[in-house]
Amino acid sequence: MRTPPAPAPSPAPLLRFGVNYTPRRGWFHSWHDFDEGHAREDLAQLAALGLDHVRVFHLWPLLQPNRALIRASAVDQLVRLVDLAGEAGLDVLVDGVQGHLSSFDFYPEWTRSWHHRNVFTDPDAIEAQAQLLRTLGRALADRPHLIGLQLGNELNNLVEHNPVTPGQVDHYLDTLLAAARDGLRGAAPGHLVTHSAFDAVWYGDDHPFTPEASARKGDLTTVHPWVFSGDCARRYGPLSPQVLHLAEYGVELAKAYAVDVDRPVWVQETGAPEPHIPAADAAQFARATVLNAAGCAGLWGVTWWCSHDVDRSLADYPELEYTLGLFDSSGRAKPIAAALADTIAALRAEPPSPEPRATALVLDCAPGTRSVSGPGGAYFETWMRLRAEGARPAVVLAERADDAGYLAARGITELVESG
Question: Which InterPro entries does this one have (predicted)?
Fold first, then answer.
């Protein structure tokens, strides 16, 4: 009897490449007088770069100005933007509660002043956000270009004014994720429900949003590896291995905290902020960042921050926020846009098939010591040294280092102690 041939290996999932959409005219204040023509123009520029998706943001105070009022006209604006992106050939992830955007926090008045409610712990505030997410999900569920619904942009930026414990964060995220799924109930299968956080999640010793929450809640893990976190670019140099491999490292670090070894990781924000990345280095930084991240197994995709520069006629932004776009505020493509487009085209022409990382560096991260894995930390520097020497180290938590089944599932055959 002939032995049947071994099945062919499954093709690697198609990597997604997109951008976080920041409207060129008026920034996110443009939601006050939404203009379809302006949005079409912006989205056409992005599609012309070969991108396949955008991440979009409405403003929480405009969507839900009263705890018991969700404005239908504002929801309709958001749905219309999703349709316009689809017409341009772009899929869309919608963030629901904004929340925090580019150094500004947007709170509805019913959460502020003498009405103050802690957005993470007040039961009525949590239910109001849940109802907003249900409403958005129902409005968007039948849109063919919808990737899914995210709770909001970097909600952990709001902890300074809304004290919260890790246990309360878990309840908050679980409640809102369930609401988003309820809103999308009945939609075509495959929509993502996610949440995001800035990288204090991974590096902040006592930050109440934890790596476990990011790596285990929602349908995939999102990472936002910014070169200014821990002063990384200034500490090591804008084209140093520590900077050029930062997004790759963020993916591998996130995978270590996941229970599901096949859980995808999405580099959902990375960018080239001046002066941390000088304009003359931005194109090289973009190419290396995307190519190095693409060498990670389990990568969902990379979404650049951001589409368009903030116009300097708008006041009070930190300097770096004015220069993050692929296009300047007059609509001209910057050199980084061409570099990103060329890199994406090359990766689509020859999709990467990264092998499992057989060697892993063990991370012994006791409570209150997350900073060892951030820029300047001993673990971070050891991982980066190995990477600069040509190794491709994975990350394994010390608590899983003796789990033979887990290591085998990840393809890890050698452990290196970080001490």
Answer: GH
> Alpha-carbon distance 76 to 351, whole Å?
37
Mark whether 266 and 118 lie in a shared domain: yes
pLDDT at residue number 152: 98
Within 8 A by CB and 6+ apart from 266, the residues are 194, 220, 221, 222, 223, 299, 300, 301, 302, 303
Q: What is the mean pLDDT of the chain?
A: 95
Task: Give the chain's domain count.
Answer: 2
Q: What is the pTM of this model?
A: 0.96
Q: Are residues 118 and 186 in the same domain?
A: yes
- H/E element, 304: strand 299-304
Same domain? For 293 and 378 the reply is: no
Domain of residue 67: give its range.
16-349
Q: Are residues 410 and 261 in the same domain?
A: no
Q: Distance between CA 182 and CA 19 in Å, rounded?
A: 27
- CATH number where 342 lies: 3.20.20.80
5 is a domain residue: no
pLDDT digits (tens, 9 = 90+) for 281-327: 999 999 999 999 999 999 999 999 999 999 999 999 999 999 999 99
Provide the terminal-to-terminal Cα distance of the chain, rounded to the nearest Å. 54
Give the 3-state DSSP-derived string for 91-138, with helices as H, strands as E and coil as C: EEEEEEECCEECCEECCCHHHCHHHCCCCCCCHHHHHHHHHHHHHHHH
Q: Does residue 239 contact residue 280 with C-beta atoms inside 8 Å?
A: no
Which is nearest to 201 in space by CA: 243, 173, 233, 237? Answer: 173
